Amino acid sequence: QVHVVESGGGLVQTGGSLRLSCAATGGIFSLWSMEWYRQAPGKQRELVAFMGHSSTKYAESVKGRFTISRDYAKNTVDLQMHSLKPEDTAVYYCHLNDLPWGQGTQVTVSS
Q1: Cα(78)–Cα(44) distance, integer angstroms
Q2: Residue 61, SS3?
Q3: Are 33 and 97 in contact (CB under 8 A)?
């Protein structure tokens, strides 16, 4: 069974940047849906960024700060995050096609 693995999280100060990566065991081949979600303590999981064949969409709260992209050299789907805020603190998950969810990666932004 293919598994999704997220990485790149960590502790960063307000205004800092992080780059998250998502890889699927066995490699990423045909993708029609690439998404990044996040879940903060006590809150529902929310969609942060989506990338399809010809479109990308972002949550209003991250527009202009986050960028979803596919790195063909590394065979990953990445989320570049800039100007991070304490409210961005959450566990971040990627969701590829209809693959099972991974464990996520923790992002903590200190004030």
Answers
A1: 22
A2: coil
A3: yes
In total, the chain counts a number of residues equal to 111
pLDDT, tens digit (0-9, with 9 covering 90-100), for 41-80: 999 999 999 999 889 999 999 999 999 999 988 889 999 9
Buried b (16+ CB within 10 A) or exposed e, 4-24: bebebbeebeeeeebbbbbbb
CA nearest 58: which of 69, 45, 68?
68
Q: How confident is the model at residue 28 (pLDDT cuts 50, 70, 90)?
A: low
Tokens of 19: 């780059």
